[in-house]
Design brief:
mainly alpha, 2 domains, Mitochondrial carrier fold, 17 helices, single chain, MCP_transmembrane
């Protein structure tokens, strides 16, 4: 290969040192400004999207028991008839013992109701949230114990998550492309793999954000006083670092962060390769079709989002001796109770499918509707309940898509 001195006699083989230093300093300064600009942009996005994130989380986590489910007795008709026959054949001694037992249960139940009543006085939860985008936000603002400041809960954690994901995911994708000698601009394999790895690695931040948002503002003693305190409390009370990366959190995160980029790549393939649309030659049709495809993606991921957040709200009680020692070392005799801003399910969920099944069977119709109907009606209302927070997720994904398209236009 000829040197520069052979082509230009008066030139040297390398650029003068002062020119290289000026160019290098200029590039470093420009990259530094670009990083700062991206960080500030992510902060503004996280701050402005916070009301939608809070209302979305409240809607998806709130346990809205259906009147159809509540109206069904716990005993089938044949069991009730059998119980009646047994009562008719019972002796007076049995009746007296049964009355005494029933009286004891009644007194115990009254005592429990009194405790629940006192707790309700201390912490008043938000009433049943309505559908739509603005109605839940309005209800949160109008709630005396929450107010407009509650709409900013979790914004700092969202900002940390967005900045970390924005920086680490492209870096990891480029690193994977170099490792596997891939020279395409976007390779589906490395793109999905990088999103999945980063999503699972940052899943504790999503766990912290959900718990901070769902925590009641009105509780006198907060279980979590901030993002770092929440993470420290989970480590102390739920089994160390295994509490942050427990399978009940990691498996849904793995599925979610694998499914989301996969759906986006499929949508991009439909747009670019099948429909042959581009944002430059089809400035109207391209964003319209892209928005429709984005809505289809949200239809698929919304039930998964609901399942993830409901599982994230469940606190695992210390069971082993090691966890008990961690609790004692943290300086607490017992964990501070986690008071939620909305009512959550009294029975813990066992997994994603269990959440979806129970939402369909237990939740559904509007509170003002009559509590009678057939199985098909309950199935319809229950399936509809899986999509609470749909519009909030669609707005959030639309803003992310617009930001990505804007970056592509700038690169072009």
């Amino acid at each position: 290969m000829p040197s520069l001195s052979n082509i230009f006699p008066n030139s040297k083989d390398k650029i003068p040192l002062y020119e290289k230093d000026e160019l290098s300093n200029y590039e470093d300064e420009w990259q530094g400004k670009e990083y700062i600009s991206n960080i500030l942009k992510q902060y503004l996005i996280s701050f402005s999207m916070s009301p939608f994130n809070v209302s979305e989380t409240y809607l998806q986590v709130q346990y809205q028991k259906s009147k159809f489910y509540a109206s069904v007795d716990t005993f089938p008709d044949d069991l009730k008839e059998a119980e009646t026959e047994i009562n008719m054949m019972s002796t007076n001694v049995w009746d007296e013992a049964k009355d005494k037992k029933a009286k004891t249960k009644k007194e115990k139940k009254e005592a429990e109701n009194e405790v629940i009543k006192r707790k309700d006085i201390e912490v008043e939860r938000i009433e049943r949230l309505g559908d739509g985008v603005w109605k839940p936000i309005h209800q949160i603002i109008e709630c005396e114990n929450e107010g407009w400041t509650s709409l900013l809960k979790g914004s700092f954690t969202s900002w940390i998550y967005n900045v970390s994901s924005t920086i680490s995911q492209p870096f990891l994708e480029e690193l994977l492309n170099d490792i596997f000698d891939i020279y395409e601009d976007i390779d589906p394999r490395t793109n999905i793999l990088s999103h999945m790895i980063v999503g699972v690695a940052l899943s504790p931040l999503e766990l912290v954000k959900t718990r901070l948002i769902i925590q009641s503002t009105a509780t006198p003693v907060k279980k979590y006083r901030g993002a770092f305190h929440c993470m420290q409390t989970i480590v102390n009370e739920e089994g160390g670092m295994r509490g942050l990366y427990a399978p009940r959190y990691v498996i849904p995160a793995f599925i979610y962060h694998t499914l989301v980029p996969t759906l986006r790549i499929i949508s991009s393939h439909i747009l670019n390769d099948y429909l042959l649309l581009t944002p430059f030659y089809n400035p109207v049709l391209y964003p319209l079709v892209n928005t429709l495809l984005l809505a289809a993606e949200v239809v698929i991921i919304t039930p998964l989002e609901m399942a993830r957040k409901r599982i994230q709200c469940q606190i695992k009680k210390p069971s082993s001796r090691q966890q008990q020692l961690m609790l004692i070392n943290s300086g607490l005799n017992e964990p501070v109770k986690f008071e939620t801003a909305v009512e959550v399910s009294p029975i813990p969920y066992t997994g994603i499918l269990n959440v979806i099944k129970r939402v369909i069977l237990e939740e559904g119709n509007d509170y003002n509707d009559e509590g009678n109907g057939n199985a098909f009606t309950q199935l319809w209302y229950g399936t509809k309940s899986l999509y609470r927070g749909f519009w909030q997720i669609l707005i959030r994904r639309f803003i992310q898509m617009a930001e990505t398209m804007n970056d592509k236009v700038d690169d072009w």
